Prior knowledge:
Distance between the termini: 39 Å
Shape: elongated
Oligomer: single chain
Amino acid sequence: MLLCALLVCLLNPSDDRITVDKHPPTTQIVSFDPKHPPADVEKLQHGENALTQMLFNCTVKLKYNAIDRREREDGKWHVVAKLDEVTVILELTNKIYLPEHANPKLRAHELGHSRINGMIYQDADAAARVAAEKALKRRWEADAADPEAAGKAATDKAVNSIFDQYLKATADRAFRIGEIYDDLTKHGTNAKQEDDGIREALQKYAEEKR
């Protein structure tokens, strides 16, 4: 038993400098009058019957060490930072805009979008951890008027890098699968069942990435 536990640890190393806090996904349904769609939802102003908005939110908190800090000849400070700890907080929010008295087919179609987003979110903690691991291996550099500002500018680059990599692995992926799903189901207007549309969309996306 001890040997098995050791092998598991070797095969699945965990960096204790990384903390990922993944909140459960949420889905909210907003009903609206088709004659007066929400003014702040642009797509509904241009003829779409319904819409699912997704937000893959990623909040990054860091602790870092300035391994190099020096004043330049022009008076600015240059800081080179290495990250000590990374905490990533993840949330997924789906907001479904449905017209009043929406038929079951349209409702099921939009719920299909939230299901796709939820499937991608299942692996969100792994995506966040990969992005954080890459950031921990790098040096982050920036210049500013004082050491504190330069340190913040350097670590802001790290935050943006983690955020961008995470979104590419989650939100961008979910968005593309959602596009394929809409094409296959004609935005929920054809006879294709939602389960079939989701399955085929996932298959087509995998083929695109080969």
